[in-house]
Sequence to fold (249 residues):
Amino acid sequence: MTTSGLSTFNLDLSEIIEEAFERCGAELRTGYDHRTARRSLNLLFADWANHGINIWTIEQGTINLVQGTNTYVLPVDTVDLIEHVVRTGAGNQTTQADLTITRISVDTYATIPNKLSQGRPIQVWINRQSGATYPTATAPSYANSTTGVDAPQITVWPTPDGSQSYQFVYWRLRRIQDAGTGVNTFDVPFRMIPCLTAGLAYYLALKINGAEARLPILKQQYDEAWELAATEDREKAAQRFVPRRMFIT
Fold:
């Protein structure tokens, strides 16, 4: 038996919208149908950011720490940080070392008596901003100066000193890119396409007249598709849990 020899299957924006409408027992007919489906897709992507770690959106970044400065802005599309270290001696095979820096809450940071004391940073408070938009002229100092978007930021403690160079190296979850307006593919791996289609069909059924009867089955299909996709989209390395000893007596 001869196979295709290909493994490039994917669906673009229009094809996924058409499939979702068909699952609702409807057809994609007007420009407004396309626009409302695209809006539902972007809401779906925003909801996925609340479902946990989407492995394909993990990106590494680096911030060069400056003596006397303890607050730094992250990229505006950052959802959260999942790992972070302080790197010393960067670029030198002999001296480069990644050192632990502990994430703390705003409550813990607020209780630090002297926030200006300098040394090697050992703690970081990650301030996940709301994403509110300000007029550029009145934007806070930590906002993106071009767009006025309130970006997430980190505050390290102690404030970096000048004894050596420090880098804050992090692995972040970024936002899934928007659905777009043309005939384009999505910022998701192929294994998420069934879940994406099922989710869009469920969202559209909430808005299409006459599709109410299909809501229970579409919701069930979406939940099952998400469960399968989320189970697959995970780290598969062996894990080892060790209790952390805070005090030794």
Summary: The chain has a mean pLDDT of 88.
